[in-house]
Amino acid sequence: VNYLLLVGILVQFNRAIGLVIGDSCRYDSDCFVEQSYCHMQQICECKENFLPTSDHQYCVATVGAICNSKHDCSTLENSICIEDRCLCSKGYVPDPHNSACRPVAQGENSDCDFDAQCQQLMGEFSTCTRRRCQCLPNHHFLGTCIRSKGLGDTCKNNTECFGNFLQCSMTDHRCVCRPGYSATSQGTCKSAAGASSRISDLLLIFLVILSIHFNF
């Protein structure tokens, strides 16, 4: 009985001095877990932007946690302490919950888990679709994701005009067919030389027939 009583006293003592997150306390000094404090002089909690581990024995940093040195961010992998905040290191971005720093995707069709991994290099018009980085609908990739402009759409440069044989007219700033091509009713461009080429072929055949007939 005395043994059980002693164990009970030790358990209550441990809870009183705040050995783990969730223990009772009166002062911040009662909370022994690093990066914890006594919330409302009642219970030990992790500081802002720190999260308790499942066993409540540690407080781990999240993106945005206050820091004085890199050590304060050591529980957040691939992070660094910049201007008193734990931020993701170069080449990494925070996940949607700011609980981890994940690698930046390397471009179109790269592996991803969330949009921000793609947008770092591919721009705001990219998205993570089926765990692959893709441009949004009606956009195409050219170093970054840009809106796809069709025949007759306004444009600023040739890269915006997406389609075969299109270019941006610098006079009216619209996507037009390149020289030597003409617009079709389907909104595409076709070779303007096609018709004249067929006429030339027929003329050549006619001349060959004449030469054979008259023994030229």
TrEMBL record:
It holds the Pfam family EB. Residues 1-18 form the signal peptide. The keyword Aminoacyl-tRNA synthetase does not apply. The keyword Plastid does not apply. Residues 135-189 form the EB domain. Coiled coil: none annotated. This is Putative low-density lipoprotein receptor-like isoform x1. It comes from Rhodnius neglectus.
